[in-house]
Design goal:
The protein is mainly alpha-helical and 494 residues long. It folds into two domains: 119 residues, no CATH class; 236 residues, no CATH class. It has 19 helices and four strands. The strands form two sheets. A two-stranded antiparallel ribbon has the order 1-2. A two-stranded parallel ribbon has the order 3-4. A hairpin with a 4-residue loop joins strand 1 and strand 2. The radius of gyration is 24 Å and the shape is globular. It starts with 28 loop residues before the first helix and ends in a 5-residue tail after the last helix.
Length: 494
């Protein structure tokens, strides 16, 4: 699709624009005309600011300010010191004639995290990042040559046997009247099915858009009651701007979770197109989120059902034109079939008592919670810093994603989600080839000097809980700072 809009080629590496929401600038019409006519990059004077949808609370790091020189310096994170792991905010270069803006505790915290990332990961200079990109593309060619993009269909034959066994046990115990046990097995059935729906959503089965989409809809909508289209809409964005507090919907879970202190500032979500308000409820949940993490995730499937219907009924979210226009109607058909066999025939007619229905539904939905743990595990403890447009795609993916180590015989439990770093680098590699690909990616990381985050399942959970606890403690610090300002200035907090 993008080739239709190509107007020319440039020599050398293209530097992405910094989004206006992070303090960047749109180019003028004259600059765009010059770009089209000369087919080369133009970096003319900064003009119209378009940061009106930025954070409610002004930030010297990310919001627009009046001094254009300071804006230019601040957007270039390569000016931050990389000589050591020092967290001193004096390492930012604001120029000889520019005074640093006054920063609050949260801005100092942001600078500290940026400095830590710059010390840990390769330099953002053009030569280093270009070398990473070229080796990343060479690795892709090697992966393709070794046949790792080819789906192993016999592996899905084994998966189908597992699905049939779990569904059969669900029906058997339902007939026996063991409703809690029956709910447990249908929950496991959904848990396992989600992995294949994920494969289909990434076109990792047949590599055909419509065929894989239909497979995914049959699994997600007809058998699971969830919208594949909703998941693809959020997940595609997640893969592009992983762990960005403003842009990645997969880490925007207020009021229940905040994986970055920047969410305390009423950030504007470009995905949800609204301000994520950090209100009293969010303050309470986030302060204790490390204790509530597993409890909240027990109810994750209920939220997925709600989000699915919001997507399907929305006049703007589900596609109504283009090649996928009919997918929405197939999803509606899938929802009708699901709620007939599950809601009416199984829950309403198959279980005689209200208490039995309650236990059955609750257990079946909660059994899928390990899937939500697995999804969040690979990102919640990783960096949420914005290092700017000079950072290459592979470096950002490896900086914001971790893998989970497990023995090969346990791969079916994790469903390929334990290889999230590899999956983010090459999303269309079929799930059953990810373990073989891991060795190649680890070689690539050693060669380019990017740390490869790999933790065992227990250690990975410790990392997540520790990070959530650290962010939660920042809420208390922010509260104390606000109280100190109130007392020193004589203001009243509202």
């Amino acid at each position: 699709m993008m080739k239709k809009y190509q107007v020319g080629r440039i020599e050398g590496r293209w530097t992405n624009f910094l989004p206006p929401i992070q303090g960047g600038k749109f180019r003028t019409r004259a600059e765009l005309d010059a770009l089209e006519s000369s087919c080369e990059e133009v970096t003319g004077p900064e003009t119209d600011d378009n940061s009106s949808n930025d954070s409610i609370t002004s930030s010297p790091l990310f919001d627009g300010i009046d001094n254009p020189n300071l804006r230019q310096r601040r957007n270039d994170t390569s000016k931050l010191s990389r000589s050591s792991s020092s967290t001193s905010v004096t390492s930012i270069d604001l120029g000889p004639s520019t005074k640093a803006p006054k920063m609050g505790h949260m801005d100092l915290r942001t600078l500290e995290e940026i400095n830590l990332d710059l010390a840990k990961y390769p330099s953002l200079d053009a030569a280093t990042q270009e070398d990473i990109v070229q080796k990343y593309r060479a690795l892709n060619a090697r992966i393709r040559a070794e046949g790792l993009y080819d789906c192993r269909y016999y592996s899905y034959a084994i998966e189908c046997c597992r699905y049939a066994l779990l569904f059969g046990l669900f029906l058997y115990f339902l007939r026996k009247g063991w409703y809690g046990t029956s709910g447990f097995f249908i929950g496991l059935f959904w848990h396992q099915l989600a992995f294949t729906a994920h494969d289909a959503g990434h076109m990792g089965i047949t590599h055909n858009f419509h065929v894989d989409s239909v497979i995914g809809i049959l699994i997600a909508n007809f058998l699971g009651g969830l919208s594949l289209g909703w998941w693809k809409r959020t997940h595609n964005v997640h893969h592009i701007v992983t762990n960005s507090p403003e842009h990645d919907p997969d880490i925007e879970h207020l009021p229940f979770f905040a994986v970055s202190h920047r969410l305390f500032s009423n950030l504007y979500s470009t995905y949800h197109e609204k301000v994520m308000v950090f209100d009293g409820a969010a303050e309470f949940f986030v302060r204790y989120q490390n204790f509530l993490y597993y409890i909240v995730l027990l109810f994750g499937r209920f939220n997925l059902c709600v989000q699915s219907w919001i997507y399907l009924l929305s006049p703007t979210q589900a596609p109504r034109r283009g090649p996928a226009w009919w997918h929405r109607y197939l999803e509606f058909a899938g929802q009708a079939v699901f709620w007939y066999w599950w809601g009416y025939q199984t829950v309403y007619r198959g279980i005689p008592s209200a208490w039995g229905r309650f236990v059955f539904v609750l257990i079946s939905y909660m059994v899928t919670s390990p899937l939500h743990v697995q999804i969040t595990l690979s990102h919640f403890a990783m960096s949420t810093s914005e290092l700017g447009p000079k950072e290459s795609f592979p470096q950002r993916m490896l900086r914001t994603t971790m893998d989970v180590d497990c023995p090969q015989w346990l791969d079916f439990v994790h469903g390929g989600l334990q290889f999230q770093a590899i999956h983010h680098l090459y999303p269309r590699i079929p799930r059953h080839n990810l373990r073989r690909t891991q060795k190649l990616v680890m070689e690539f990381c050693r060669e380019v000097g990017i740390p490869y985050a790999l933790y065992g399942f227990i250690d990975g959970n410790k990392q997540v809980i520790g990070h959530l606890g650290d962010v939660g403690r920042q809420v208390a610090i922010l509260k104390m700072c606000q109280q100190t300002i109130v007392e020193s200035e004589g203001f009243h907090m509202h």
